[in-house]
Amino acid sequence: MILSAEVECIIYDAQSLKEKRSVLKRVITRIQNDFNVSICELDYQNLWQRTCFGLVVVASDKVIAEQTIQRTLAFIDSFPELERTDTVLEWL
Questions:
Q1: CA spacing 20 to 30 A to 48: which of 21, 57, 82, 83?
Q2: In CATH, what class is 2-91?
């Protein structure tokens, strides 16, 4: 089973692209190290306070894929610098 998620976030404290990328690098690196999930920035690369992540998980069972994505989304929510505004899940 393949589950993808498109996650839009706002980064309130970023005053430059350098600050935004610093936050994103920390989030992406932690997710790649802690979860079995592929992640990248999909959109809004040139906006200071907005981003869109793409997450993909491949698992042998639907329940495992769903649990992994939900844990990853909860982890994203744990960052005080980010606010998750919109999430779209899609089974492939």
A1: 57
A2: alpha beta
